[in-house]
Amino acid sequence: MSEKIRVILADDHPIVLAGLRNLIQAEADLDLIGEAASGQAALALIHDKKPDVAVLDISMPELSGIEVAQRLAKENPDVRVLVLTLYEERSFVMRSLAAGVKGYVLKRSAAENLVQGIRAVKRGDLYIDPSLTDEIRQGIAKKAEATEQGNDARELTEREASVLKYSARGLTIKEIAARLDLSAKTVETYKSRASDKLNLRTRAEIVRFASGQGWLEDV
Amino acid sequence: MNSARPSQSKPAPRRTIHTWLNWLVVASVLPAIAVTTFVIIRSFNQERDNLERNLVGTARALSQAVDAEFDGARSALLILAASPHLASGNLAKFYDEARQVLPATKGDNFILTGLDGRPLLNTSQPYGAPLPHDDLAPPPRAIDMGRPVVSNLFNDAATGKPVFRIEVPVTIEGTPRYTLTMTMSTERLNRLLQRQNMPADWITAIIDSNETIVARTLNGERFVGKEVSPGLKSALAEGGEGAFEGLTREGVTALSSFSRSTVSGWTVAISIPKEGQAGFFWRALWENVVAAYLLLVVGVLLARRISSRIARSIESLREPAASLGLQEPVVLPPLEIQEVDELGKSLVAAHELIEQRTTERNKLRRRIMKAQEEERLRLARDLHDQTGQSVSAAIMDLKVIEPLVEEKGRDRVRFLRKQMEGLGQVLHRIAWELRPASIDELGLTHALVNYVEEWSAKNAIPVDFHCVDSKLDARPDEVRTTVYRIIQEALTNVAKHAQGAKNVSVVISTSDETLHLTVEDDGRGFDPTASSSRLGLAGMRERMSLVGGRLEIESAPNRGTTIFARIPLVTRRAAA
């Protein structure tokens, strides 16, 4: 801890900004070198001061915290960005991480976690608010699960393929039956037989498969 | 509930137009038939009375005709009886005279009989030839009676044919001396009867005073010389003239009349077989029945034609009526019945009114929906931007204050801060449920992924979300909100109703300028025709109708449920 961590803050809410200021100034190893009330101002300030860590609110006028992070990833990759937000949804976290954000801290737990977050980010770690990690881990695990099946449309008869194609396009059994001049019962049989052959358990899988076959284009 | 309507009586019978018209036909034909039948019966009875009266008159006239016939013969006899040859007793000369006169008369021969009953001459025999006593002929009675007499029928000894005689007494100078007789064959009387030109089925008969049939228009060869029928016999015993109903000699029931001549004591009888006159009656009745039947048949056929026309007209309104409020144009087929046509026009008017109201209401509902959505957005923003931020700032302040507070109060400050953190979480949750900021901040796709994951975690059912609309986040506000709300509603329904669902799919795709939302579960399912009034479905339908979309449901018990929501991407109608 030879040198203080140089921090800038950006939030469009003055009282939040004041709270953050107090939090940071209470820490001996942190040095608050600037504040901004909008994304645009924050970007200019960062260019000017080159802080170690930029603490950004996500929802800000002009540029959001995530957008600022995106810009910084290109223009000033050395500046570590930590977003501070009220949003607790996974998608915000994913978007932020994709934009190059290194830290994600909820405002409601900022009093507890912000300082730790700033230190972790400065060290080069990824810091995600501990009250979120369970959900995030679940989400990331799910993503890995979605693997492509090696199924083949050639296993289908022409009729089965048509039924599956129309089904993937969102037609009801009755509508498919009308288009192919078949009974509803027959259409259902074709559909379940085709799904069995390709081991497609859900409609979304059928759609995904159809999409992979190029069946959903040029409709 | 006290019904203001007075119609608590029995429910009116519900029958087809066809049945009603048939009733009309029967109700108009049957009384007509009853009246004509009554008229036929009454006129038949009058006819019969008339006939009876006329028949007696006819019999009397005929009887007089027979008398006239006899009169002719009697006159000839009386003139011959006054012959001077008889007075002078020159029988040979009288024979010659009689032979000369005979052809001018209606008789077969003249016979002159003495007071002892022995024949003195017979113009059929040569003069002077021996004349045997005729045992078959009745003895002459004219001398005893003192006036001309007509004998009863007997068989001629020479020819064996039935004949009768007319006798006159011959008185010379105040003393009866002979009986002059003329023999007549029944032929003459037969011809007399034929000349009357009676209706063919009438039976006319001439009867002598012995009640033996002398001539008869029907079956003469069988009955001439026989006794009359018992019916006529007893009627004759009662009086000289009358009518009665009884059996003829043939055994046929007939209406008969008779008239006895006081001069000759002979009778003329006329019989009309019941068959004949009743034939008229029955034929009239039969014609009446046939006419009634034909009328009924024609009426029923007409009724069917008319009723099928009416029914077809009304029927053709059924489809337009059923499509009322379906936002499809009401097309009226050509209608040939004015009332139905007017009904059809009312339908069209009603349709237009519904359309107009629906459009107005939809406009209003869209505004309300939009306002509601905006209000939610505003509330959510306020919660985040003001309350949420203030709470955050307060938490941070509490953290800063914490080390400055004395040992005793530090725990209280920490506790307060934890409380505030909980409050912040709740505020965020409320804002998210009102309207996720992610729809606007990150786009609909992300918001949906969030929602789906949240739902999946909460209900422990895996959800397979697949979106193949790359422009989803750029769709108009209204479409995006609808998509989010529909999926939200559909998943809420799955959680509430689809017990046992193991997989849920949420698919978003586009085709034919239509956005397809498909939400499928493999849960319990239901019968969509039976419970279409589920609140969730109604809400979804409402939302869909406001963006001009449609909702289709495919489900069956134990077969899962699929919700198909289609939102047109090109505004079909004025988007007002």
List the helices and strands and how they pair.
The complex is a heterodimer of chains A (219) and B (576).
Chain A: E1 5-10, H1 14-25, E2 30-36, H2 39-49, E3 53-57, H3 65-75, E4 80-85, H4 90-98, E5 103-106, H5 110-123, E6 127-128, H6 133-145, H7 158-168, H8 173-180, H9 184-198, H10 203-213
Parallel strand pairs in A: 1-2, 1-3, 3-4, 4-5, 5-6
Helix pairs in contact in A: 2-3, 7-9, 7-10, 8-9
Chain B: H1 17-81, H2 84-88, H3 91-101, E1 109-114, E2 119-122, H4 142-145, E3 149-150, E4 154-155, E5 162-172, E6 175-185, H5 186-195, E7 203-207, E8 213-216, H6 220-223, H7 230-238, E9 241-247, E10 253-260, E11 267-273, H8 274-322, H9 338-401, H10 407-434, H11 437-441, H12 444-459, E12 463-467, H13 477-497, E13 504-511, E14 514-521, H14 535-546, E15 550-555, E16 561-568
Parallel strand pairs in B: 12-13
Antiparallel strand pairs in B: 1-2, 1-6, 3-5, 4-5, 5-6, 7-8, 7-11, 9-10, 10-11, 13-14, 14-16, 15-16
Helix pairs in contact in B: 1-8, 8-9, 9-10, 12-13, 13-14
In summary, what is this structure?
The complex is a heterodimer of chains A (219) and B (576). By secondary structure, chain A is α/β, with parallel strands linked by helices.
Total of DSSP H or I helical runs spanning 4+ residues of chain B: 14
What is the CATH C level class of the domain at 444-576 in chain B, in words?
Alpha Beta
Biggest β-sheet description of chain A: 6 strands, parallel
Helix content of chain A: 40-55%
Q: Specify the CATH architecture of the domain at 444-576 in chain B.
A: 2-Layer Sandwich
Q: Which stretches of chain B of 5+ consecutive residues score pLDDT under 50?
A: 572-576
CATH structural architecture of the largest domain in chain A: 3-Layer(aba) Sandwich
Total count of helical runs of at least 4 residues of chain A:
10
Here the CATH topology of the domain at 444-576 in chain B equals Heat Shock Protein 90
Text of the CATH class of the largest domain in chain A: Alpha Beta
Biggest interface, chains and residue tallies: A-B, 48 and 58 residues
Strand order of the largest sheet of chain A: 2-1-3-4-5-6
Query: What name does CATH use for the topology of the largest domain in chain A?
Result: Rossmann fold
* Gross geometry of chain A: elongated
**CATH homologous superfamily assignment of the domain at 444-576 in chain B:** Histidine kinase-like ATPase, C-terminal domain
Rg of chain A from C-alpha positions? 26 Å
